[in-house]
Structure prediction request, 249 residues.
Amino acid sequence: MRAVLSSIVVAAALLAGTAAAQTAKSSAPLEVPALIAGVEESTLSSQMAGKIRQVHVGLGDPFRKGARLIEFDCSEQWAQLETAAAELRAARETHLARMRLQALGAAGELDVTVAAAAAEKARSQVSLRESQLAYCRVSAPFDGSVARLRVKPAESVAIGQPLVDVVNTASLKAQMFVPAAWAGWLKTGTPLTINLKESGQSYEARISKINSRVDGVSQQLEVEAKLGKGEGRLLPGTVGTAVFEPPAR
Prediction:
């Protein structure tokens, strides 16, 4: 996606002179390349090192928010949790025993305090093991579909390794680079049309975000537009042409 966006920047720079000339001399529509992207898209990475036990989705598969996408083999982590739970039970029993001995005058305050601290330490270990078990399951952060599956069952992965790319195709935006001179009239809410040459489809859109600075090298301004309804299915990664009506003079 970054490579495509870089190509859009180059194309926009080449068209900058043309667009600026259109603005200056006529009321002809102003055009710049536009890259379609998901408003919600992400690469989910591993939060633990381990072996993939099961992959529940494939390329292009839809899913709902919270759905289980990938599971790790966490036999070791479960065993560690059971060990921590047993140590907690033992520490609590020791604490209770020290308290009973204190009531009988056979244990001092220090003995009870140390036993209580040991029980608290054991409880924190259980909480730690439980939090680590949460990493054994990779769940969907939003409704969407799989754009790229990067791992397979039985594969071993490292912490931070990308696992799956997900995108919400129901909510799309257009990313564009326009001439810096347009900053004088372009604003949030400005309408535009996204035309797709290959399919002949058109989509209405409105500017939703404008970068707070101009790129110093290309003298281009990055903007985003939220797409409305249109005919046919539009997918992230599609490149089209954004058409603006020239500003009133």
